[in-house]
Amino acid sequence: MSGVRLITCIVTCQDDPECYSLNFKFAFQLCELNNGTRLSVEPKYFVSSVDTVYLDNLYRPYRPCDNAPCSYGGACVVTNLYPGFKCECKAGYIGPTCEDCSEPYRTLGMETGKILDSQLTASSHAPGFEAFKARLNGPSCWKSAKNKPGEFVEINLGQKRRVKAIQTQSDPREENWTEQFYMAYSLGPCTDDQGWSVQEFVSTGPQCSFHLDENADYLLDYFHSVSNYNGQTGCQDVHSISGYSLNRHTYRMMSGVRLITCIVTCQDDPECYSLNFKFTFQLCELNNGTRLSVEARFFVSSVDTVYLDNLYRPYKPCDNAPCKNGGTCITTNFYPGFTCDCKPLYHGPTCEGKDFHSASE
Question: What range(s) does the EGF-like domain occupy (predicted)?
Answer without folding.
Answer: 61-99, 314-352
